[in-house]
Amino acid sequence: MSAAVLTPADEGELAEAIRDARGGLRILGGGTRGAGAPGPALSVAGIAGVTLHEPGALTLVARAGTPLADVEAALVEEGQRLPFEPMDHRALLGTEGAPTIGGVVAANVSGPRRIQAGACRDSLIGVRFVDGTGAAISNGGRVMKNVTGYDLVKLMAGSRGTLGVLTELSFKVLPAPETEATLILEGLSDAQAVAALSAALGTPFEVSGAAHGAGRTVLRIEGFTDSVAYRAGRLRTALARFGDATAEDDPERSRAIWRAIRDVTDFADRPGDVWRVSVKPTDGPAIAARAGAEETLFDWGGGLVWLLVPAGTDLRARLGDFAGHATLVRADAATHAELGTFHPEPAPLAAIAAGLRAKFDPRGVLNPGLMG
Predict the structure, then answer these.
(1) What is the CATH code for 265-339?
(2) For the chain, what is the radius of gyration of the CA atoms?
Protein backbone atom coordinates (compact mmCIF):
# COMPACT_ATOMS: atom_id res chain seq x y z
CA MET A 1 0.00 0.00 0.00
CA SER A 2 1.07 3.58 -0.71
CA ALA A 3 2.11 5.70 2.25
CA ALA A 4 0.12 8.67 0.94
CA VAL A 5 -3.05 6.76 0.06
CA LEU A 6 -4.00 3.39 1.47
CA THR A 7 -5.03 1.24 -1.50
CA PRO A 8 -6.09 -2.23 -0.34
CA ALA A 9 -6.32 -4.83 -3.09
CA ASP A 10 -9.17 -6.82 -1.56
CA GLU A 11 -11.70 -6.84 1.25
CA GLY A 12 -9.29 -8.53 3.67
CA GLU A 13 -6.65 -5.82 3.25
CA LEU A 14 -9.35 -3.18 3.61
CA ALA A 15 -10.55 -4.67 6.88
CA GLU A 16 -6.98 -4.79 8.16
CA ALA A 17 -6.38 -1.14 7.23
CA ILE A 18 -9.51 -0.07 9.10
CA ARG A 19 -8.65 -2.15 12.17
CA ASP A 20 -5.14 -0.64 12.20
CA ALA A 21 -6.35 2.96 11.89
CA ARG A 22 -5.33 5.17 14.80
CA GLY A 23 -7.41 8.15 13.68
CA GLY A 24 -9.87 9.27 11.06
CA LEU A 25 -9.69 7.95 7.51
CA ARG A 26 -10.82 9.82 4.39
CA ILE A 27 -12.67 7.27 2.28
CA LEU A 28 -12.20 7.59 -1.48
CA GLY A 29 -13.74 6.01 -4.57
CA GLY A 30 -12.56 7.78 -7.70
CA GLY A 31 -12.09 11.11 -5.89
CA THR A 32 -14.30 12.94 -8.39
CA ARG A 33 -16.60 14.65 -5.88
CA GLY A 34 -13.85 16.38 -3.98
CA ALA A 35 -15.53 16.60 -0.55
CA GLY A 36 -14.09 14.41 2.17
CA ALA A 37 -13.13 14.23 5.80
CA PRO A 38 -9.64 15.07 7.07
CA GLY A 39 -7.11 12.33 7.68
CA PRO A 40 -5.18 9.75 5.66
CA ALA A 41 -6.93 8.67 2.45
CA LEU A 42 -8.24 5.13 2.07
CA SER A 43 -9.10 4.28 -1.54
CA VAL A 44 -11.15 1.31 -2.74
CA ALA A 45 -9.95 1.76 -6.32
CA GLY A 46 -8.01 -1.52 -6.09
CA ILE A 47 -11.14 -3.50 -5.19
CA ALA A 48 -12.59 -3.55 -8.70
CA GLY A 49 -14.25 -5.70 -11.31
CA VAL A 50 -17.70 -6.83 -12.45
CA THR A 51 -18.15 -10.15 -10.65
CA LEU A 52 -21.53 -11.22 -12.04
CA HIS A 53 -23.78 -10.12 -14.87
CA GLU A 54 -26.90 -12.12 -15.61
CA PRO A 55 -28.62 -10.25 -18.47
CA GLY A 56 -31.65 -12.52 -18.43
CA ALA A 57 -32.19 -11.85 -14.73
CA LEU A 58 -31.47 -8.10 -15.16
CA THR A 59 -28.85 -8.38 -12.41
CA LEU A 60 -25.30 -7.06 -12.12
CA VAL A 61 -22.79 -7.35 -9.27
CA ALA A 62 -19.61 -5.26 -9.16
CA ARG A 63 -16.89 -4.48 -6.64
CA ALA A 64 -16.99 -0.96 -5.24
CA GLY A 65 -13.84 0.34 -6.93
CA THR A 66 -15.04 -0.58 -10.41
CA PRO A 67 -15.06 2.50 -12.67
CA LEU A 68 -18.62 3.49 -13.53
CA ALA A 69 -17.58 3.48 -17.20
CA ASP A 70 -16.70 -0.22 -16.95
CA VAL A 71 -20.08 -1.06 -15.43
CA GLU A 72 -21.90 0.91 -18.12
CA ALA A 73 -19.81 -0.72 -20.88
CA ALA A 74 -20.70 -4.20 -19.62
CA LEU A 75 -24.36 -3.27 -19.64
CA VAL A 76 -24.24 -1.68 -23.11
CA GLU A 77 -22.92 -4.94 -24.54
CA GLU A 78 -26.18 -6.58 -23.49
CA GLY A 79 -28.46 -3.68 -24.42
CA GLN A 80 -28.98 -2.68 -20.78
CA ARG A 81 -28.33 0.27 -18.48
CA LEU A 82 -28.40 1.47 -14.89
CA PRO A 83 -31.89 2.91 -14.35
CA PHE A 84 -30.89 5.92 -12.26
CA GLU A 85 -28.60 7.83 -14.68
CA PRO A 86 -25.77 8.79 -12.27
CA MET A 87 -24.25 12.24 -12.58
CA ASP A 88 -20.59 12.77 -13.51
CA HIS A 89 -19.31 15.56 -11.22
CA ARG A 90 -15.96 16.17 -12.91
CA ALA A 91 -16.90 19.08 -15.16
CA LEU A 92 -18.84 20.91 -12.45
CA LEU A 93 -16.20 20.44 -9.75
CA GLY A 94 -13.11 20.58 -11.94
CA THR A 95 -11.91 17.24 -10.60
CA GLU A 96 -10.13 14.35 -12.28
CA GLY A 97 -10.10 10.60 -11.74
CA ALA A 98 -12.81 8.14 -12.70
CA PRO A 99 -16.19 7.84 -10.95
CA THR A 100 -16.60 4.44 -9.27
CA ILE A 101 -19.75 2.45 -8.72
CA GLY A 102 -19.07 2.44 -4.98
CA GLY A 103 -18.83 6.22 -4.94
CA VAL A 104 -22.11 6.46 -6.82
CA VAL A 105 -23.85 4.32 -4.20
CA ALA A 106 -22.13 5.99 -1.24
CA ALA A 107 -23.51 9.35 -2.37
CA ASN A 108 -26.80 7.93 -3.77
CA VAL A 109 -26.03 9.74 -7.03
CA SER A 110 -29.17 9.92 -9.16
CA GLY A 111 -29.83 11.83 -12.38
CA PRO A 112 -32.83 13.16 -14.33
CA ARG A 113 -34.46 9.73 -14.70
CA ARG A 114 -35.06 9.59 -10.96
CA ILE A 115 -38.59 10.91 -11.54
CA GLN A 116 -39.42 7.70 -13.40
CA ALA A 117 -36.97 5.01 -12.27
CA GLY A 118 -36.23 6.11 -8.69
CA ALA A 119 -32.94 6.93 -7.03
CA CYS A 120 -29.77 4.85 -6.98
CA ARG A 121 -30.89 3.17 -3.74
CA ASP A 122 -34.06 1.95 -5.46
CA SER A 123 -32.02 -0.14 -7.93
CA LEU A 124 -29.63 -1.45 -5.27
CA ILE A 125 -30.49 -4.97 -4.10
CA GLY A 126 -27.39 -6.04 -2.15
CA VAL A 127 -24.26 -4.68 -0.46
CA ARG A 128 -21.03 -5.87 1.08
CA PHE A 129 -19.03 -3.49 3.25
CA VAL A 130 -16.49 -3.28 6.04
CA ASP A 131 -17.61 -1.37 9.13
CA GLY A 132 -15.54 0.78 11.46
CA THR A 133 -14.45 -2.22 13.55
CA GLY A 134 -13.03 -4.01 10.50
CA ALA A 135 -15.89 -6.53 10.28
CA ALA A 136 -17.16 -7.52 6.81
CA ILE A 137 -20.96 -7.42 6.51
CA SER A 138 -23.31 -8.57 3.73
CA ASN A 139 -26.98 -7.74 3.25
CA GLY A 140 -29.73 -8.12 0.69
CA GLY A 141 -30.07 -9.39 -2.85
CA ARG A 142 -27.68 -12.17 -3.82
CA VAL A 143 -25.95 -12.12 -0.43
CA MET A 144 -26.74 -13.46 3.02
CA LYS A 145 -30.03 -12.82 4.80
CA ASN A 146 -30.22 -9.70 6.92
CA VAL A 147 -29.88 -10.62 10.59
CA THR A 148 -29.05 -7.18 11.99
CA GLY A 149 -32.52 -5.64 12.06
CA TYR A 150 -31.43 -2.86 9.67
CA ASP A 151 -32.20 -2.50 5.96
CA LEU A 152 -28.51 -2.06 5.21
CA VAL A 153 -29.00 -1.85 1.46
CA LYS A 154 -31.02 1.35 1.80
CA LEU A 155 -28.97 2.57 4.76
CA MET A 156 -25.63 2.40 2.96
CA ALA A 157 -26.85 4.31 -0.11
CA GLY A 158 -26.12 7.94 0.67
CA SER A 159 -24.15 7.26 3.87
CA ARG A 160 -20.95 8.54 2.20
CA GLY A 161 -18.63 6.10 3.87
CA THR A 162 -19.57 7.11 7.41
CA LEU A 163 -21.10 3.73 8.36
CA GLY A 164 -18.89 1.39 6.37
CA VAL A 165 -16.65 1.14 3.34
CA LEU A 166 -18.47 -0.53 0.47
CA THR A 167 -16.76 -3.44 -1.24
CA GLU A 168 -19.42 -4.98 -3.50
CA LEU A 169 -22.81 -3.88 -4.86
CA SER A 170 -25.67 -5.77 -6.51
CA PHE A 171 -28.13 -4.03 -8.83
CA LYS A 172 -31.29 -4.60 -10.76
CA VAL A 173 -30.74 -3.14 -14.24
CA LEU A 174 -33.07 -2.33 -17.13
CA PRO A 175 -33.11 -2.80 -20.90
CA ALA A 176 -31.86 0.26 -22.77
CA PRO A 177 -34.56 2.01 -24.85
CA GLU A 178 -34.54 1.80 -28.63
CA THR A 179 -34.65 5.59 -28.98
CA GLU A 180 -35.56 8.84 -27.25
CA ALA A 181 -36.88 12.30 -28.08
CA THR A 182 -36.98 15.62 -26.24
CA LEU A 183 -39.76 18.18 -26.40
CA ILE A 184 -38.60 21.78 -25.96
CA LEU A 185 -40.67 24.78 -24.85
CA GLU A 186 -39.07 28.22 -25.01
CA GLY A 187 -39.46 31.37 -22.94
CA LEU A 188 -41.49 30.15 -19.96
CA SER A 189 -41.04 31.74 -16.54
CA ASP A 190 -39.93 29.46 -13.72
CA ALA A 191 -43.50 29.19 -12.43
CA GLN A 192 -44.90 28.50 -15.91
CA ALA A 193 -42.17 25.94 -16.55
CA VAL A 194 -42.82 24.01 -13.35
CA ALA A 195 -46.54 24.04 -14.15
CA ALA A 196 -45.73 22.60 -17.60
CA LEU A 197 -43.42 19.96 -16.11
CA SER A 198 -46.06 18.97 -13.56
CA ALA A 199 -48.69 18.74 -16.27
CA ALA A 200 -46.42 16.54 -18.40
CA LEU A 201 -45.61 14.24 -15.49
CA GLY A 202 -49.33 13.89 -14.83
CA THR A 203 -50.00 12.46 -18.29
CA PRO A 204 -49.83 8.74 -19.14
CA PHE A 205 -47.00 9.30 -21.64
CA GLU A 206 -44.15 8.08 -19.37
CA VAL A 207 -41.96 11.17 -19.24
CA SER A 208 -38.43 10.17 -18.12
CA GLY A 209 -36.91 13.64 -17.84
CA ALA A 210 -38.43 17.00 -16.88
CA ALA A 211 -36.16 20.03 -16.51
CA HIS A 212 -35.98 23.80 -17.02
CA GLY A 213 -33.09 26.20 -17.32
CA ALA A 214 -31.67 29.01 -19.46
CA GLY A 215 -35.12 29.76 -20.85
CA ARG A 216 -35.76 26.22 -22.09
CA THR A 217 -38.20 23.71 -20.66
CA VAL A 218 -37.42 20.15 -21.76
CA LEU A 219 -39.20 16.81 -21.48
CA ARG A 220 -37.85 13.41 -22.45
CA ILE A 221 -39.69 10.40 -23.86
CA GLU A 222 -37.89 7.03 -24.21
CA GLY A 223 -38.81 3.63 -25.60
CA PHE A 224 -39.55 1.90 -28.89
CA THR A 225 -39.40 4.17 -31.94
CA ASP A 226 -43.10 4.08 -32.84
CA SER A 227 -44.14 4.50 -29.21
CA VAL A 228 -41.81 7.48 -28.70
CA ALA A 229 -43.18 9.22 -31.81
CA TYR A 230 -46.77 8.63 -30.69
CA ARG A 231 -46.27 9.68 -27.07
CA ALA A 232 -44.22 12.76 -28.00
CA GLY A 233 -46.97 13.88 -30.36
CA ARG A 234 -49.67 13.36 -27.78
CA LEU A 235 -47.62 15.15 -25.11
CA ARG A 236 -47.02 18.09 -27.43
CA THR A 237 -50.79 18.42 -27.87
CA ALA A 238 -51.41 18.10 -24.14
CA LEU A 239 -48.99 20.99 -23.46
CA ALA A 240 -50.27 23.30 -26.19
CA ARG A 241 -51.49 25.84 -23.62
CA PHE A 242 -47.87 26.45 -22.61
CA GLY A 243 -46.71 27.12 -26.17
CA ASP A 244 -45.76 25.29 -29.33
CA ALA A 245 -43.16 22.68 -28.36
CA THR A 246 -40.49 21.64 -30.83
CA ALA A 247 -39.23 18.06 -30.90
CA GLU A 248 -35.58 16.98 -30.91
CA ASP A 249 -35.98 13.45 -32.24
CA ASP A 250 -32.36 12.78 -33.08
CA PRO A 251 -31.42 10.44 -30.22
CA GLU A 252 -27.78 11.57 -30.04
CA ARG A 253 -28.70 15.25 -29.77
CA SER A 254 -31.41 14.39 -27.25
CA ARG A 255 -28.90 12.45 -25.16
CA ALA A 256 -26.52 15.42 -25.25
CA ILE A 257 -29.24 17.68 -23.83
CA TRP A 258 -29.79 15.32 -20.91
CA ARG A 259 -26.09 14.74 -20.22
CA ALA A 260 -25.70 18.50 -19.83
CA ILE A 261 -28.64 18.63 -17.42
CA ARG A 262 -27.45 15.55 -15.53
CA ASP A 263 -23.93 16.96 -15.07
CA VAL A 264 -24.96 20.65 -14.66
CA THR A 265 -22.33 21.55 -17.25
CA ASP A 266 -23.76 25.06 -17.76
CA PHE A 267 -22.32 25.93 -14.34
CA ALA A 268 -18.88 24.46 -15.06
CA ASP A 269 -15.89 26.80 -15.42
CA ARG A 270 -17.95 29.71 -14.11
CA PRO A 271 -17.06 31.59 -10.93
CA GLY A 272 -19.24 31.18 -7.88
CA ASP A 273 -20.55 28.50 -5.55
CA VAL A 274 -23.02 25.82 -6.57
CA TRP A 275 -25.84 24.69 -4.30
CA ARG A 276 -28.33 21.86 -4.74
CA VAL A 277 -31.75 22.36 -3.13
CA SER A 278 -34.37 19.62 -2.80
CA VAL A 279 -37.97 20.82 -2.36
CA LYS A 280 -41.51 20.09 -3.44
CA PRO A 281 -41.68 20.95 -7.16
CA THR A 282 -44.37 23.56 -6.53
CA ASP A 283 -42.02 25.32 -4.08
CA GLY A 284 -39.11 25.40 -6.53
CA PRO A 285 -39.86 28.74 -8.26
CA ALA A 286 -40.27 30.58 -4.94
CA ILE A 287 -37.01 29.09 -3.64
CA ALA A 288 -35.22 30.20 -6.80
CA ALA A 289 -36.62 33.72 -6.44
CA ARG A 290 -35.49 33.97 -2.81
CA ALA A 291 -32.04 32.67 -3.67
CA GLY A 292 -31.30 35.52 -6.07
CA ALA A 293 -29.02 33.18 -8.01
CA GLU A 294 -26.98 34.16 -11.03
CA GLU A 295 -28.34 31.09 -12.80
CA THR A 296 -30.83 28.37 -11.93
CA LEU A 297 -31.47 24.87 -13.27
CA PHE A 298 -34.58 22.89 -12.31
CA ASP A 299 -34.56 19.10 -12.59
CA TRP A 300 -36.91 16.33 -11.36
CA GLY A 301 -39.95 18.31 -12.47
CA GLY A 302 -38.85 21.25 -10.31
CA GLY A 303 -38.05 19.28 -7.17
CA LEU A 304 -34.28 19.62 -7.58
CA VAL A 305 -32.99 23.18 -7.94
CA TRP A 306 -29.36 23.86 -8.85
CA LEU A 307 -28.23 27.40 -7.99
CA LEU A 308 -25.10 29.31 -9.01
CA VAL A 309 -24.44 32.09 -6.47
CA PRO A 310 -21.52 34.42 -5.65
CA ALA A 311 -18.69 32.75 -3.76
CA GLY A 312 -19.20 32.65 -0.01
CA THR A 313 -22.99 33.16 -0.13
CA ASP A 314 -24.77 31.68 2.89
CA LEU A 315 -27.70 30.36 0.89
CA ARG A 316 -29.39 28.70 3.86
CA ALA A 317 -29.51 32.03 5.70
CA ARG A 318 -30.82 33.73 2.57
CA LEU A 319 -33.59 31.15 2.11
CA GLY A 320 -34.60 30.99 5.77
CA ASP A 321 -36.90 28.20 6.90
CA PHE A 322 -38.26 26.03 4.10
CA ALA A 323 -39.50 22.48 3.62
CA GLY A 324 -36.44 20.88 2.07
CA HIS A 325 -32.68 20.88 2.30
CA ALA A 326 -29.78 22.74 0.70
CA THR A 327 -26.43 21.05 0.01
CA LEU A 328 -23.27 23.02 -0.79
CA VAL A 329 -21.83 21.16 -3.79
CA ARG A 330 -19.05 23.45 -5.03
CA ALA A 331 -17.16 26.00 -2.95
CA ASP A 332 -13.68 26.51 -1.51
CA ALA A 333 -12.60 24.66 1.60
CA ALA A 334 -13.13 27.69 3.85
CA THR A 335 -16.75 28.09 2.74
CA HIS A 336 -17.43 24.38 3.21
CA ALA A 337 -15.93 24.62 6.71
CA GLU A 338 -17.88 27.76 7.62
CA LEU A 339 -21.30 26.86 6.18
CA GLY A 340 -21.21 23.08 6.23
CA THR A 341 -21.65 20.90 3.17
CA PHE A 342 -24.89 19.25 4.27
CA HIS A 343 -28.10 20.76 5.58
CA PRO A 344 -28.35 20.59 9.39
CA GLU A 345 -30.53 17.68 10.45
CA PRO A 346 -33.52 18.09 12.78
CA ALA A 347 -32.60 17.00 16.31
CA PRO A 348 -34.51 13.66 16.25
CA LEU A 349 -32.94 12.67 12.91
CA ALA A 350 -29.49 13.80 14.08
CA ALA A 351 -29.85 11.60 17.15
CA ILE A 352 -30.73 8.58 15.01
CA ALA A 353 -27.80 9.25 12.68
CA ALA A 354 -25.41 9.58 15.61
CA GLY A 355 -26.70 6.32 17.03
CA LEU A 356 -26.12 4.52 13.73
CA ARG A 357 -22.58 5.88 13.48
CA ALA A 358 -21.89 4.73 17.04
CA LYS A 359 -23.18 1.27 16.13
CA PHE A 360 -21.28 0.81 12.87
CA ASP A 361 -18.20 2.95 13.57
CA PRO A 362 -17.74 3.07 17.35
CA ARG A 363 -14.15 4.38 17.06
CA GLY A 364 -15.15 7.22 14.68
CA VAL A 365 -12.58 6.38 12.01
CA LEU A 366 -14.75 6.47 8.85
CA ASN A 367 -15.02 9.96 7.33
CA PRO A 368 -15.38 11.55 10.78
CA GLY A 369 -17.32 14.81 10.78
CA LEU A 370 -18.36 14.56 7.15
CA MET A 371 -22.08 14.28 7.85
CA GLY A 372 -22.37 15.59 11.37
Answers:
(1) 3.30.70
(2) 21
